[in-house]
Write a structure and sequence with these properties.
elongated; 4-stranded antiparallel sheet; 291 residues; two-stranded antiparallel ribbon; alpha+beta; 2 domains; single chain
């Protein structure tokens, strides 16, 4: 699977998307009518009008699936802004796009100090368990795994599920799906914790590489913290089996968090089928750590 991770307009998601999806569970026609009154985006309005014309009553069971999916892809996958006539698409926001398993591997390296990233088999087993039941309170890893926090008032896997993953347990306040979101306040908290997590990971690398101590680790630290824009040249020990370093990609994820905080944006993670239908190799196959 592919992962698309990008900032989203926090106000749009709070004021439009969440109320729309909550109401859609019981009265999707009313939800669509309310949403259309707020949108200036012509394509989204056409999709909404088509959904109303074909509506057969009730909640999500009354909507036509193809235009509903297309509408959800626009609401969750594009960059929205508020103008004089309402909310409209202002572009496709740049973000992180890559193999989902690899992104989960990188996020667990960052978020979980017990994740055995340098042990291919153990790391793969940990990710397999995480995919089936993504745990809460692991920051970016929980988001990439599809876990929702705060707990939504609707089952996210029922409103939109590109890959068919999901679960919703209201008693435990637990939900996960092929897509997940975090509000700007959560992203800001992650950003405040980012430096300590990056330095913790680098310390694990220092211990892993003993007795060698590559001088490049200090340059990696500066790159991780955004003090230098370019990743430094890396020794073989810090380069993954596919010739491109995990250092680059964690740097990209850190930069994405900084961008989202600067924009006061939330974060959206969406899982999609692999490009050309060909799955990529597991990131931890080969020499550790995976790249």
């Amino acid at each position: 699977m592919q992962l698309v991770l990008r900032p989203v307009n926090d106000r749009f998601f709070h004021e439009q998307v969440l109320p729309f999806l909550s109401l859609s569970m019981s009265d999707s026609a009313k939800a669509l009518q309310s949403l259309l009154g707020q949108l200036a985006d012509e394509e989204s309005r056409l999709l909404g009008t088509r959904l109303l014309a074909s509506h057969i009553g009730g909640g999500l069971g009354g909507v036509e699936q193809t235009p509903w999916t297309l509408l959800m892809e626009r609401l969750t996958g594009l960059h929205w802004g508020l103008g004089p006539s309402g909310w409209s698409v202002v572009g496709e926001r740049a973000g992180y796009v890559g193999d989902w398993d690899e992104a989960l591997h990188l996020a667990l390296m960052l978020e979980d100090p017990t994740y055995p990233y340098a042990q291919a088999r153990a790391a793969h087993g940990r990710r397999e368990g995480f995919r089936q039941h993504p745990v809460a309170d692991l920051g970016l890893a929980s988001l990439i795994g599809g876990q929702w926090e705060p707990f939504p008032s609707f089952p996210p896997d029922r409103v939109f599920s590109p890959m068919g993953r999901g679960g919703y347990v209201s008693r435990q306040q637990y939900a996960f799906a092929d897509w997940a979101w975090r509000p700007a306040s959560t992203v800001a908290r992650w950003h405040a914790q980012l430096e300590s997590k990056l330095l913790r990971l680098l310390e694990r690398e220092r211990e892993r590489l003993l007795p060698a101590q590559p001088p490049e680790l200090d340059a990696v630290r500066a790159y991780f913290l955004g003090k230098t824009a370019e990743c430094p040249p890396l020794p073989e020990a810090l380069v993954g089996p596919r010739g491109f370093s995990w250092v680059h990609r964690i740097g990209w994820l850190a930069a994405l968090l900084r961008d989202a905080v600067r924009e006061e944006a939330g974060l959206m993670a969406r899982m999609t089928p692999p490009l050309n239908g060909v799955p990529e190799a597991s990131p931890s196959e080969g020499s550790p750590p995976a790249g």
